[in-house]
Hints:
heterodimer, A: alpha/beta, D-Maltodextrin-Binding Protein, domain 2, elongated, B: mainly alpha, MetI-like fold
Amino acid sequence: xxxxxxxxxxxxxxxxxxxxxxxxxxxxxxxxxxxxxxxxxxxxxxxxxxxxxxxxxxxxxxxxxxxxxxxxxxxxxxxxxxxxxxxxxxxxxxxxxxxxxxxxxxxxxxxxxxxxxxxxxxxxxxxxxxxxxxxxxxxxxxxxxxxxxxxxxxxxxxxxxxxxxxxxxxxxxxxxxxxxxxxxxxxxxxxxxxxxxxxxxxxxxxxxxxxxxxxxxxxxxxxxxxxxxxxxxxxxxxxxxxxxxxxxxxxxxxxxxxxxxxxxxxxxxxx
Amino acid sequence: xxxxxxxxxxxxxxxxxxxxxxxxxxxxxxxxxxxxxxxxxxxxxxxxxxxxxxxxxxxxxxxxxxxxxxxxxxxxxxxxxxxxxxxxxxxxxxxxxxxxxxxxxxxxxxxxxxxxxxxxxxxxxxxxxxxxxxxxxxxxxxxxxxxxxxxxxxxxxxxxxxxxxxxxxxxxxxxxxxxxxxxxxxxxxxxxxxxxxxxxxxxxxxxxxxxxxxxxxxxxxx
Lengths: 271, 222
């Protein structure tokens, strides 16, 4: 085993270890509930990856921006507190919560039952589509066509999970560290197609007209939510209440239009 | 949605490069002091002291820096301490550099012929005085190349601090790359900034070595 593989294994193991000790952390991190802590502090601390457009990015003034940042500002405004955006890498979304480093995580956080064992999810904030994007000339109309093709995807995202689960045997899946590298691989011809979020797929297509790219087919739906610590009913209920009101009052829709270029017909709720 | 890679981004990267340099400087200062202690303990005649130093070096060298950073940041939070990213990174890098400097300098100290110790002893110098006045001055020159090699590595290893949310050069590069979607141009700039930090260190080391005399350098150490 090479050093770098050992490193990768060790790095992969740590979040698991941290996640399993989440129980202890909850007791320490939230005496009296996160909601009261935030109100008393007067600041909402939100973990967001700023390297994940269009969810989290930096604008031309190099300030945090994007759909998730806009959502964080809406939530903070509802709560009547200031917002503090903390840049976290996607792999640390769960440890950042369980260790109490942030109050909530809004960071292109797809709901999965597996993740929900370690943390809790609010109701939906956006339902993204995961699409396959490739050149017009490429014959690719469904998962079965993936066989024998080189497909690029960003590592450990729900795009990765979606295509890994559905791709037939013989698909060459190549994983990259961020969306910029994944799209670069498509443009450089290292992969024939990529699986990415619908909004990003459109942006990459428009950015590279010479490639004649198009959305080939929808791989799956990805409902996104706000992540919070488990066992924090007040915080969870308040977030869901706020999301319900923000959607009903039409505050979320323009944000979706601005960053995603589309508006969900309805945001699914658990109950 | 995409921005064109421009001077605004280069300035953003430059500011992050300062953080990279600052973190490396902290690690260097902390690791320098720590490394001296570790090296001294490592050549001690008192067995428990020596064993402690060996254990420290073994543990730090035997675990990935990435994991050490993770423990310093998230682990501390689980233990009830709220450590900001800079403090956690500074702590992890200081321990990391202490272990490596300690071992590098131990090697240099042991490379000084044993007769020097005996001569010092014959002059009535105690163990610590012999180390400080006789042995260490002779160990400095051979220690320079591996020390500088490690410092340059240290600068580049600060990239790992991005995992705990410390926005240094590499994380800044990721952020800019993901708004411009021009990773090639962005990471060439990032590489250039690393070079600007590392090259003067190598240059200074060569000067220092030349000044320290004899001019003989083991080819394997360069």
